[in-house]
Amino acid sequence: MNLWTLKDWIRQQQFRFRGLFRKQKLEDEMAAEIQQHLQQEAQFHRESGLSPEDAGFAAQRQFGGIAQIKESCRDERGWVGLEEGWRDLKIALRQILKSPGFALIALLTIALGIGANTAIFSLFDAVVLRSLPVKDPRELALLSPGANAPTATVGPHSISYPLYRILRDNPSVFDGLLCHFRLFANVNVRGEIQRETVELVSGNYFDVLGVRPALGRLFTPDDDRQPGAHPLAVLSYDFWQNDFAGDVGVIGQTIHFNGQPLTIIGVSARGFKGVDLDSQPQIRVPMMMTAKLFPSMSWVGLENSGMRWVETFGRLKRGVSLSQAQAAIQPLYQSWLQSAIDAGAFGQVQPADKEKLLRSSLDVLSGAGGTSFIRRDWAMPLRALTGMAGLMLLFTCINVANLFIGRGIARRGEIAVRLSLGASRSRVVRQLCVESVLIAITGGIAGLWLATLATNSLATLLPVSTDTTPSLSVGLSGLVLFVSAGATAIVAVLCGLLPALLTTHVDLAPFLHQASARVLPRGRLRQGLLVTQVTLSVLMLFGSGLFVHSLRNLYSVAPGFDTNSVVAFGIDPVLNGDSRQRAEQIFNQIKERIESVSGVESVANGLVRLLGGTDVWQTGTAVDGLPPPADGNQLVCLNAVSPDYFRTLRIHFREGRDFRATDRAESPPVVIINQAFAHHFLGTVEPLGRRIWLSGPTGYRLTEIVGVAEDSHYNTIEGSSPAQIFVPYSQLFTVSGMNGYVRSSLPIDQVPAIIRAAVHAVDPALPIHALRTMSEQRDRALGTERVVALLATAFGILATVLAGIGLFGVLNYSVARRMPELGLRIALGSPGASVAWLVVREVALLSGLGVVIAIPIAWSLGRLIANQLHGISLGDPWAAASAALILTCAAAMATALPVRRALRVNPLVALKSE
Amino acid sequence: MDPIELPQGTLDLLVLRTLNSGEMHGWGIAQRLNLLSKDALRLQEGTLYPALYRMEAKGWITAEWAQSENNRRAKYYRLSKIGRKRLEYEKESWDRLASVIATIMREA
User: Does the ipTM surpass 0.90?
Assistant: First the structure.
């Protein structure tokens, strides 16, 4: 039966569809058939003795209402809705083409609103919402030590390898746990050594993530058993495509990785970029190869329980929640902590600290989105920007609704005629809605197009402090498309339905009696919308003003070293297999070469890149013979630097001496501290000659303070200079990596070529990275602030333009409404100024009201973002005043045209139209 | 006795049954229904047409313009194969319904 019904339905639709193309014929046939019926019926009645006239009436009575029957026949036969829709569409198109200016403004407004929303939301989606492209990402959990965890760490979620091993071997609530660590390596690809982002991974890494090979095979736990015994590599799909041209013969080939030969066993699936949004590791190697491939990483170590470095993800067993998992692993974590403390993994632990350590927890967080510094830094700004974009959409709606209401009112006469001729209100509303839906959809599509343009450039603007290529894919995902379609629908409804309902709700009589403009209503709603718009506009201008002002303040911060004539570059000879001594020799040869160029003043080396964002080296310390600082904070920032470092960067000395060439690895350990350190750790005690505890090649040792430098910024521009310790680069025994700094009086754009030439001449196999001027480095360090300020300003300008269009629309309408009155006044000799004031007064009052409402709101909203702002007190009237000023200018510009129109009213014409 | 209102949907069955005996135009169907029911049905003749159009759309009946007996062009309706099956089905279910109702009325 059901199948029958379905078949009937299909045949019906086919029949109706065919009917579309022979509408007139069917209509004629129907008329003829009914006519025929009536004639036969009448004849029948005549034959039974009625007069011809009565026979006709009898036939009609017998038949029923002809018009109604015809209508229900049409219903059976055709697509009435479709036909009417098509008719509405044609009428709407005609209306739109009649006033292209109106349509264009509405369309542009919608395109900008939807475009801004889609662009920001696609960024928000890519950075905050999107899950990793792996199997069932919702089942992934990230293990992260909570407060009070052991402090020696590389990243916020790192744990030590021995802890990972225990968790892996006792998975209980997990189906498996992986660990990974991202770093750089020098890789020989077909004769050329490149610096690549690479990843050490546990043997079950790909299994746990559910990633398949694109070619060959991926690691199994058997590839990660014995330290140093698995010289294997898995390439990422992109690396295979770009550096091996997708050659299927790579399997079994050898690549040299930090000078060590590795056999390529496979290529991971296309689209898989890892669990870290900030980078795209190109090569993955087994965890067990750490020491063999990265000899300088002795400070981590697979057996070192005291150093947190690997990041661990687990796949939760089906039905296990994050909190259940967290509760389940705590006993294991506590017993491991106890045994690690007992084994001295964290050094000498005071009883109070031991209590604190044992109270710490191992948190289980959602791992669906992977980890990311970009997300950490951008989640808040993007939320704020998404909110702003939402406001913009509201603006768009208000504006376009305003335009439509204005036009609807102008068309009231026409609408009244249609209603009085018997069109149902719903029919007229529907017709008006078709128009706005048409404009909204076109605007929405244009907006999507704008958004794709914007997202491409926005994605490249996102600052990456890790000097890696982020694996974000900013684009129009299904969710993004859904959201912008939803936004378009909201715009269409608000801009179409609301004005349509308003304008069709009319008292017909006055319109039919006189097509006078005098009866046009003042429009309380429109005034309300306008005030809202001005208020929101001032708020956005105020917000963007705060961000711009804050950025300006950040740029005026003196970092304590010279950023103007210094160029920095990164090299790491140790990754090529060179020894530390050899690496220093290489650097000194490069230094000599560069310094031999006339105009170059000095070259120096530092381990940690200044203003490098996440490039940080911190440790806890204490001064021999002094109590720890009053606030208990013993964390300091370290850097290992060569002689001339301070001179090259223009960091001034307070007292003591610079490092010398004689401060060698085997000579007595020395340090230079900064003023912040002296103030924090020493107070008024004379620093020179004092000794502090620092870790050495064989445990903690005392090192002597030989100099005090003035304060300088470390990894960020924000905040003040942290307590810092500088150690001689020659006495560095752990990590590798060098950042050269070149000071010269040459034009700064000539320096990079000099550096490249010198490095290449000394060691052609040495890759250079992060070669940039220190002012570029500062730009990068302020990347987040710059992008936020840029976007906020763009939004502020957009909002002001929209408010201007809104004001223009309202004013233009009110001039039209008051045309006869204005004409009369001009005829009676009113001076131009008073006529102009008459016109402007309404807008001036409304925008004034908007500004007045905005200021207290701006003030309280400013408090919300205060922690993101630098050096701005909210009492500072600068931002609010300039926001009000800019808006006033925009309002003045918007009023110019309508005022001109008002002043040119021809009294005769205006009065005649009464 | 007052004329009977047709229950919803039964008009289709009656029209199909009428056409079972051969092709017929609209007025003819109406006359035949009036004749067979001895004018007991209160049939607004016009309501035949939406039903005819509906069944034509569903493919139960086909229509063709032809010369009528009194030399006028008229639209003739004829049962299609689908319509014939449909009639059997509808008749059967009508008989079942009628007998069920009759049984209940008798024995309840």
Answer: no
